[in-house]
Every structure is written in C-alpha cells, then in structure tokens.
Amino acid sequence: MYHEITLTINGEGYTLAVQSHHTLLKVLREQLGITSPKMGCGNGECGACTILMNGLAVNSCQVLAPEADGATIETVEGLSKDGKLHPLQQAFIDHNAVQCGFCTPGMLMSARALLDRTPHPTEDEIRYALVGNLCRCTGYTRIVEAIQDVAGQSDS
Amino acid sequence: MNLEFTLNGASVSLPDIPEDMLLVDLLRSTLGLTGTKRGCETGTCGVCSVLVEGKLTKSCRTPVARVAGRTVTTIEGIHAPDGGLSDLQQAFLECGAVQCGYCTPGMIVAAEALLRANLNPTRDEIRRAISPNLCRCTGYQQIVDAVELTAKRRMGESANQRISEFQNPQSTIHNLKYVGNPKLQNVDGPDKVSGRIKYVGDMRVAGMLHAKVLRSPLPHARIVKLDAGPALAVPGVKAVITHADFVDHGNFGWPVKDNYVLAYGKVRYVGDAIAAVAAETEAAAQAGIDAIVLDLDPLPVVSDMTHALDPDAPIIPDKPSTLTAGGFGEGNLCDRHIVRNGDPAPILEACPVVLDEVYTFPHQEHAYLETEGVLAIPEPDGGVTLYANNQSPFINRDTSAAVLGLPADLVRVILPPVGGAFGGKDDTVYQTTAQAAKLALVAGKPVRLVLSRAESMAASYKRQASQIRLILGAEADGALQAAKAEMLMDSGAYASMTPLASWRATMHAAGAYRYRAVHVDTTSVYTNNGFSGAFRGFGNVQAAAAVEMAIDELAYRLGRDPLDFRLQNCLREGDRTMTGDPIDHEVGLTACLERVREASEWDRKRAAYAQQPADTVRRKGLGVACYFHGSGLGGEGHDFAVSTLAVDPDDGITLTSGLTDYGQGSRTVFSLLAAEILGVDMQRIRMLRPDTHTAVDSGPTVASRASIVGGNAVRVAAEKLLQQLTFAAADALHCTPEQLVRAGENFVGPDEEPLTFEAVTAHARAMGLPLSVEGKWEIRPIHWDFEKGTGEPYLCYVFGALVAEVEVTMRTGKIAVAGLWAAHDAGRILYPAGALGQLYGGVVQGLGYGLTEHFRYENGIPQTLELNTYRIPRATDAPDIDATYIQTTLREGPFGAKNLAEPVMVGAAPAIANAVFQATGQRVRSLPVSLKPVPSSH
Q1: pTM of the predicted model, to two decimals?
Q2: Which strands, in side-by-side order, build the sheet including B221-227?
Q3: Do B206 and A33 touch (CB under 8 A)?
Q4: Domain residue spans in chain A?
Q5: Last residue of some domain: B77, B99, B132?
Q6: Do domains A2-78 and A87-153 have the same CATH topology?
Q7: pLDDT tens sequence across B347-356
Q8: How many Å apart are CA B271 and CA B217, to the nearest integer?
C-alpha cells in the first residue's frame, strides 16, 4: 500500500509515494538516491543510518517512511554549503578522524545534533552523544578530538 | 486499478496501476523486465514485442487494462525448461543471427509465436511472421535461418545445415582453431538472446532524474529571448541548463568547431538543441521544457544546396569553416577536396564515346533501433561518470571535459552495449552526453537522457544528400580513358564529419577502374537541412552509386554487356587507382565479378530478360555494380589502436581495446585473435567493454578499421604475452623456447612432458615475469596532399561486386528485389558468421537506400520523423542473398584480414537501379529509384 508523504530534505521539498512497510532509510537511499545514510545493521544498533529528523539525531532504519510525513530531514549531503565543507567535516579530516568512512556520515550527524543543543560539550558529553554510533576503525579518540576542536572554535 | 495477470507463468497482482499505463512501461519501469525494449513510439519497430495469450503483441500499443486476467510472455519467460537458452535462442547463436542485439528479444518472441502456430513454416512464411519487427543490422537472413533450423529440429529432423552457412573452401587455414572457423559464435550472444543485456535505457540507479531537451521548431532563427528560469518553478524539476552553463558556450565539433552543446545566438536546423531540463519524472521534465520562455526570430532558410553558395544566400555558420586543405571557407562553404591525376580534358576530347550525366542522392537516416542515450552519474570528486552509447568513448570524454571545464581524468566514459550505430553514434551522442553530464553536475543527482524516436530522427545527423556530375570517356573498344567528377554534398547546419566523408567520396568518385587521368572537384556546403555526418560507407555510398549507374549507361551506349565492360576495365593487382595510387596487394575484384556472374546465371538471365514482350505486366531485369573502398582512416589521420592483455589470478585472460563494438562483432574478433595467438581456449578470454579509466585511447571506431588496426593491436599484445609464457615454460622444462611445441593449451618440451597453461602461469608468477602487457599497432604513415590533390590516400583497398534481380510491376511502378548475389574481397575472413552478417546487413541497408529511404526536407522542415513513414527494409522486402567472400591476403592484416563493415553496403543500390533499367528501359539517375507507373494497355 502506498502513502503520499511530504518531506523537506536538506532544504528541498519532496512529495513522494512511499510503501507503508518501507523505512525512511530505504526511501532516502533507494527512492531518492541519497546514500550518505548507510545500512549497517537494520536494527538501530550501529548508527550508520543516523540523520536529523526535525533536529533530532535518529536511526533512519527505525523510522517507517509514512511516520516521517511532514518532517524536516538533514543528511550529510546538506552539511556542506557552496562547495565549502562544514567545520565538523573539515575537523574530521584535520584530525584524521576518518578511516574506512562508513560510520562517518552517522558520526557527523550525531555530532551536529550534539553541538546544536550543547555548543560546548565536555568530553564525556561528546562520548555519550556518540554512544549510538559504532566505529570499528578509529577507537573514537580522534572523532572526539575533532568535535572538541569545533566546539572550541565556536568559543572564540 | 488493481491489475492481475499471469506473467511468464507466475501470477502477478499489482495495486494502484493507472489503467492507461502502457504494458511496455509496466514491464520495464515497474517490474524491471528490460528485455522488452522501446524503439519507436508508433508501434512500427517491434522491439517491444511480447506474447499475450500466445499472440504476438506490441507492448508499446497495449494499455495494461487489456492484459488483465490474461497470460503474458516476455523474453524473460522464453528459455529451456532448465532455465538455460531455448532451442530457438541457441539457433540464433549458431546461425549468427545476433548483431547489436536490440531487436533480438522481439525477434525471438515473434519467431516463437510463429513456431507455436506453424510447426513447419517456409522461409517466406518466416519472413512474413517476423516482418512486424525491424532489424537494421542483420538483413534478416540469419534470423530466418535460425527460425527455419529450429522448426526442422522441432519436427524431429537432425538439421544442422542452413542456407547462409559460410561455405567457402578457402575459409579453412590449416592449424588454426578460431580464425575462419564457421562455428564461431558472437561472444555477447547468450546475453543478447536472453534479453539479459542492459543497454543504457535499461539502466536505472536510485534517485535518477529524467532529462528532456528543448529543440528548435524552426530551420533557421535568431534566439531573441531564452528564459529558462520558469522551468525551475515546475514541481519536480531539479536542473535546467542553457549554453551559458558551458565553457565557451559549449562550442564543440571536430574537425570544424562550429556546433554548440546547446544553441548559442542562433538555431540552424529543426531539432537543434536549445535548453535541457532534469526532473524527477519524464512528465515533470517535459513540463519544465514547456515552461521555458523562448522567442525565435525566423531567418531566411537555405534548403537547396545548389544555391547555398549564391552571393545573396543567408550565411549559416558563425564563422568561416576551416578547410582541410588550409584556409577558410567563404559564406556557406564547408569544405573542398580535389583529385588531380593527370589531365583528363584532352583525353576526353579525343574519346569517341563520352557520357556526361548528373546523379542525385537523398539524405539517409541511420535508423539504429536504439536511439541516443546517456546515463550521467555525478561523482563525489566533482567529476562525472557517463554511460553513453557512443562509437568513440575517448572523443566523448574529451569533448565533455572541454565544455564542462573539467580535467579529462574527472570525466569517465563507460561504453554499455550499443544497439546499432552505422556511423551515427559519433557526434550527436557527444552533445547529448555533455547535456546529461551538466544536468547531473548541477542537480547533484544521476540523470538519464534517452532520445525519443522522433527526437532522434530530427536531431541526429544523416548521410549527405549529394549531387554528382560525372564525365566518363572510353575508346570504341570499351577501354575507359578518363573521368571528371564534380560533387556537391549537403552538410546541413554543421560540418560534423562531412569534411572527411566528402574527402572519401572524392577518393572514390570515378570508381574501381583504370584511367589514364582523373580530376575530381568536391564541394560541401552548409544548409538548414538538419546536418550530415558519418554513415556507413562515408561518402563512397554516393560516389559508388553515381559511378556504377554511369558505367552501366556508358556500357549500354557502347553496346557492351555491363559485366563484361566492368571486367575489361576494373582494377587488378599492380594497377593504379583513380587517384594514381598503385595497388601492391592482392585484388579480388575480377574474382568477385566472375563469382556473381556465375551464381546469378547472369548470361542466361540477361539474354532472357532482354526478350521480354513489351506488354509484360511484371518485367524482370538484372543489374550489376562493383566497387572498391579504401581501408581505415588513410589520409584522414593517425591510424592506431592499443590493446591490453593480462592473465588473471584464476588464469582467465582479461582483454581490453580502446575500440568499440556496437553490434558489428569486433569483441568477438578481438577475443578470437587473442585466443588463437595465445593458443588458449576462447572461454579464457574476458573482453572488457571500453572504459576511459581502464582502456587505452585507440582513436575512433570508424572507417571499418577495427579488424586491421584493432586486430593487429590485439595480435601485438598477444605475441608479447606469449613470449613471457614461452619463456616461463622453457625455464620450467629446462629447455630453450625454440624447443617448445604446443599441444592444445599445453606447452611441450623435448622430453615430451606436457605443461598445462596453469602450470606455466604459476611458474611465470614465481619467476616474477609480468603477465600483463600492452600492444600497440599503427598503420605506416600515409600522405595525401589535400592542396595538390595527389598522394597515397589509403594503405589498402577492399573490393566487391553485386548482382541484383528485380521484378517491376509496370502498372504501379512497384519494384520487388527478387535476387541478390554478393561477393566481397575483405582479405582473410576472421569471424565467418559475423562477416556474413555484415554482408547481408550491409546489402539490405543498400537496398533501402536504393528503393525506399528518403529523409526529405521541405524548406528545411523534415517531412518524416517516425519509422512508419521513413521506411527501412523489413524482412519481406529482401530476398535471400547469395553471399561469398573471395579470400585474398593482405600482408599487413592480422592473419591476412582486411576490413568489411562499411563497403559491403555500397553496391546494392546501383545494382538495383541498373536492374530496373534492364527491366523497364527507364534509366535511373536519382535515388531512391522512383518509377513513373506505365498505364496498362489492357
């Protein structure tokens, strides 16, 4: 069964016919070709599918597409503006926080949500904010440093 | 509606299907069954054929509501019980009935419908049954063979023979396994007969946008206003582009840079692209196109090429054309070429018999069944990956990179399977590619742009309409003495390849005969009649048609048999061609003429048809034509190709070439050459499709040059690789390389202990020998002096002759071709079934050129944009062709091969025209042949 839903994704309006049993992740990736949110586990465990939905970091594999009707969605595709990387993206590069890159989009979105609500988080707060995002490469240290760097910059 | 029906044996239930949706769209878009193709929008071509309740049905004319509750079978549902290929599909492979493969699924569906209704059809019944389906490659003959063979086998006969089998005793070269083997099959065959292969229009990626192009409705106009902005306000539209989005307004073109990716300042023909839109659906893209504000101010039109150079003719190009011989053209002059071989004037004055006539030829459309298409995918590095059905991926890459302002390494062109080209996918599709690439980069999403049939017919280039004046002089004994030719060719709105095609026409203007002196003067001009460029034969189709009709008339005036007259004057080894070029290789032209004379029973039939009573209702006639054709680019440019070979870890062998296969079979030729030289099973060879990231630039795939140049590049690579393997085998067997012999794939040393291919490669790897090589081959430098009109135009020539028999219904003027006998000298034949397929297909394209194909412009307006009004031959329009290859040897060719794909088409039209003369007494000097009906006296 199809539902017609409207979404605002990275500032652009979409009207879509989606199947009732399809997840938001599936619609983003397969219907719209927005592939930065990854399918890592399908159970909401790994966070590779993290996006912002109405400003909150959510696992898009755990949201049914019809539930998202009317929502404002942000993905990594919307982070950089006019060909310029978002400070978080630049900090991830500068701090070598990227290895295989598969968790990176989800990490960036969780970090973005954190800084939106807590501009100057402590290291513990950062680590707590990333608890839903698994990374098997980096050991997290450099990701935390990158986020601290951005939080520090916004101080000055 | 809720649609329920049985599809390929399984019940399907689909909710929310619009009742007016077409079955072809349901199959392709909703269900992803892309074996069913789209080729036209008018139910004319049959590539969308399916069975509904066992009955042959065009799915592009079938609303889905009509199949509710019924049984539908598509190509995906036709297979053997074990899921493998059916007997019919196998027979298509055995008979060489597959070339580009785009019509193949529909053909198999049509043939299956016939065989279910008629267990033992005649060849005529088969032709009638498949006649709703068009094929532009094969000439239908091997398809008929495959259906006939299947019928016989289903009747319990252990049939293997087929009418079109390659039966030349010279075909077997001793000790060769693959070269010249009549059993060789097309390497892409299984994927094509099963409908599995994906053409660009069959490809889909997530988030893909659809593109449409705004095209000029006027043949010549100034763009007064172009506001593309309103398109962006249309829901679903994601990008819109104009000339302003490209570097230097998207100016491109080779050899003359006179075209634009999207029109800048002016439009010059009906179909000229102006703006392009990408949107979420095709309908939204069209709505975007409709929203663009365009104001055109009509300019005077040049439609008659004979007036294009008049002093008061409106000027079409922005700036003067660059002439090949140097300097610039004035006004609408596109290019000039000359031949200056001796001085024919005094010789002609002294000739007792001189013919001076003018011949005219129409524009011809390629009518490949797959229209131009591109899938553009933007990459994270700012580059773009392009799946484009072009002939020359490196030219495409360089053109796109230049207009997009990207370095070439950020533009990657990958060649999908191509559904026919015939010279026609070597220009317009580069423009289409750049449009799709820019839309994808602007939208940040993949964009697919596939032209509709009407759009393709309007936008794509044609064979040049031409007017040729020939003056031929002969002695009373029939010896040809001298020739003068004046050629005028219509390049249309842009130069495209006309400067090169008109050069080739110039090099062939006086035909395959000996002369004491020849002058040729060729002029090509700009008009507003579409535009013209490369098309199989590349100028020689017009040149050969004119000279062969003229030679026939000259023979008649001399009271000579036209075939005898040709034998007296035709080129032999050691002769000089009409340009003065000495031929230093074997020439099979007299053998070709003798062969068609014997096979067609020329002498008996000519005598009999000369005696037909004047009131015969259906009059018969026999006509002949012969030709020569320079191989490769010749004086046009640097003629080289590169191939790579690498032994993979599993001992498969990966082969690349920068040259492309658009149906003509070069992938099979390259694969068999590699296997033959390496002495390995052909199954080991994995030929990749050209990808500008992995293959090496080899120039364009044109000019019938793939076999000689590309084949030699494969040979060089294979010989290099074999050297490494031989070295390793000798080391392993403790002998010298010279002591090794091969037994099958094995290497055998003096102790007669065989070493398997796998053991040799393992040893080579252990020795650290490179098992990856690159082979390059180029034709030795050839020089034509464009300014003086002298020099050596080509490395070598191929030759051929053709006899046609026609039956003309005098009352109506209807011409039926009752017989065709073709013989062609292409050196050694490498891939017999493919070579025959080229010959049948080329001859039938020539038949269309002679009888039905006329792409007509009235004051610059095209008069037909659909396949139902532009008539290409159907299966019932052609007879079975008796085809022979006269095998000679070219020293430089791989295993002695020359080339064949283009020249095989040039003889058919003039042979038919000459046959019409014998039948009717009406001399034909204009194609397509159009007869005045003779009222019946009864």
Answers
A1: 0.94
A2: B266-267, B221-227, B293-298
A3: yes
A4: 2-78, 87-153
A5: B77
A6: no
A7: 999 999 999 9
A8: 7
Distance from CA of A100 to the nearest CA of B (A): 16
Tell me: do B274 and B240 sit in the same domain.
yes
Q: Which residue from B206, B235, B444 is facing A31, i.e. has the nearest CB?
A: B206
Q: What is the pLDDT of residues B391-402, one digit of tens each?
A: 999 999 999 999
Q: Same domain for B773 and B742?
A: yes
CB contact under 8 A, A77 and B444: yes
Helix (H) or strand (E) holding B567: helix B562-569
Query: How is domain A87-153 classified at the CATH fold level?
Result: DNA polymerase; domain 1 (1.10.150)
DSSP code of residue B163: T
pLDDT, residue B872, reads 97
Residues in chain B with CB shorter than 8 Å from the CB of A33 are 205-208, 445-446
Confidence band (pLDDT; 50, 70, 90) for A154?
low
pLDDT tens-digit series, residues B583-594: 999 999 999 999
Nearest one of B203, B210, B45 to B130, comparing CA atoms: B45
Looking at the domain assignment, is residue B893 inside a domain?
yes
Tens-digit pLDDT profile for residues A44-92: 999 999 999 999 999 999 999 999 999 999 999 999 988 899 999 999 9
Amino acid code (one letter) for B920: T
Of the three residues B749, B778, B807, the one that is the final residue of a domain is: B778
- Going by the DSSP 8-state scheme, the letter that residue B779 receives in this structure is P
pLDDT at B631: 87
Closest chain B residue to the Cα of A32, Cα to Cα: B207
Return the residue in A18, A21, A25, A32 with the most chain B beta carbons within 10 A, the one to mutate for interface testing: A32
How many CB atoms sit inside 10 A of residue B900's CB?
26
Question: Which tokens in the block code for residue B629?
Answer: 């054709």
Same domain, B59 and B165: no
Contact residues, chain A, for B446 at CB < 8 Å: 33
Q: Is the dihedral of CA B531, B536, B539, B543 positive or negative?
A: negative
Q: Among residues 24-43 of chain A, which lie with CB inside 8 Å of chain B? A: 29-35
Range of the domain at B160: 87-197
CA distances from B421 to B113, B309, B365, B400, B535 (A): 29, 32, 11, 20, 9
Banded pLDDT at B131 (limits 50, 70, 90): very high
Distance from CA of B1 to the nearest CA of A (A): 13
> What confidence tens digit (pLDDT) does each residue in B532-544 have?
999 999 999 999 9
Across the interface, whether the CB atoms of B206 and A15 are under 8 A apart is answered no
Q: Please tell me the distance in Å from A30's CA to the nearest CA on chain B.
A: 5
Give the number of domains in chain B. Answer: 5
Does B445 sit within 8 Å of A33, measured CB to CB?
yes
ipTM for the assembly: 0.78
Q: Which residue of A has its CA nearest to B378?
A: A33
Tokens 């290409």 -> residue: B872
Q: Which CATH superfamily hosts domain A2-78?
A: Beta-grasp domain (3.10.20.30)
Which residues, 6 or more positions from B684, have their beta carbon under 8 angstroms from its beta carbon? B651, B652, B653, B675, B757
Q: Does A124 touch chain B (CB under 8 A)?
A: no
- Cα B330 from chain centre: 33
pLDDT for res B781: 87
Assess if residue B318 is contained within a domain.
Answer: no
Contact criterion met (CB below 8 Å) for B464 and B498: yes
Residue located via tokens 């902005």: B229
CA distances to B216, B610, B611, B622, B847 from B933, in Å: 39, 20, 21, 20, 20
Q: What is the 3-state secondary structure (H, E, C) of B795-837?
A: CCEEEEEEEEEEEEECCCCEEEEEEEEEEEECECCCCHHHHHH
End-to-end CA distance of chain B: 60
Nearest-by-CA chain B residue for A17 = B16
- pLDDT higher than threshold 50 for residue B171: no
Q: What confidence score (pLDDT) does residue A84 get?
A: 92
Q: Is the pLDDT reported for residue B884 higher than 90? A: yes
Whether residue B682 has pLDDT greater than 50: yes
